Amino acid sequence: KQEVTQIPAALSVPEGENLVLNCSFTDSAIYNLQWFRQDPGKGLTSLLLIQSSQREQTSGRLNASLDKSSGRSTLYIAASQPGDSATYLCAVYGQNFVFGPGTRLSVLP
Amino acid sequence: EPEVTQTPSHQVTQMGQEVILRCVPISNHLYFYWYRQILGQKVEFLVSFYNNEISEKSEIFDDQFSVERPDGSNFTLKIRSTKLEDSAMYFCASSGGTGRDEQFFGPGTRLTVL
Fold first, then answer.
1. CA–CA–CA angle A36, A40, A44 (5° rounding)
2. Which of A2, B71, B82, B95 has the largest count of CB atoms under 10 Å?
3. Chain A contact for B50, CB < 8 A?
4. 3-state SS assignment for residue A27
5. What pLDDT digit, counting tens, does each position of A49-104 carry?
6. Is the bond into A8 cis (omega within 30 degrees of 0)?
7. Is B1's Cβ below 8 Å from some Cβ in A?
8. Is the Cβ of B61 closer than 8 Å to some Cβ of chain A?
9. Do residue B56 and residue A96 have CB atoms under 8 angstroms apart?
10. CA angle, corner A41, sides to A38 and A44, nearest 5?
11. Contact B63/B54 with Cβ under 8 angstroms?
12. Residues of chain A neighbouring B45 (CB-CB closer than 8 A)
């Protein structure tokens, strides 16, 4: 059974810092991995999708990498802003989506 | 930009009542999903739907739950006899292509069972 974990559970950084969020999964037989952000009481906003054959994807200040063999993905956020404050979720797609518990990010002005 | 919509945004019901949660997926998408998130917990997969039938379902999706695509635009989740533990945020999602493409989520319906 696929298990997804995320480290750290929470992170507080000053504005402008670069930061890395980590996602680990136990079963490497996945089709893709998707990163989302979730604002309090809201839905999930898709950030990046990495197919299993890819190593990384970039969108603006976000860069996500995937190492399928070691069961890891990282989300790199450059030059963080207060508007980046949210919970970041990773989800791996095998038979269906399995979500991690999220990293709650606070970017302080 | 196309988006997934869900109605209602908040539904309050009495235990034992039936509820129907509605979703309008992105118009050219072929794969549809329901997820739930109990307050403070992980997002959990419930069911996926393609070509007018269920393609995958989780252990949570028992006989109390059903899904339907009653017309060309709506996708519904019915809970037959709600329990207190069904209280959660329910998210609908859709994807195109092969079903392993990016999933787009709606804003959710908060279900409160009293």
1. 25
2. B95
3. no
4. coil
5. 999 999 999 999 999 999 999 999 999 999 999 999 999 999 999 888 899 999 99
6. yes
7. no
8. no
9. yes
10. 30
11. no
12. 96-99
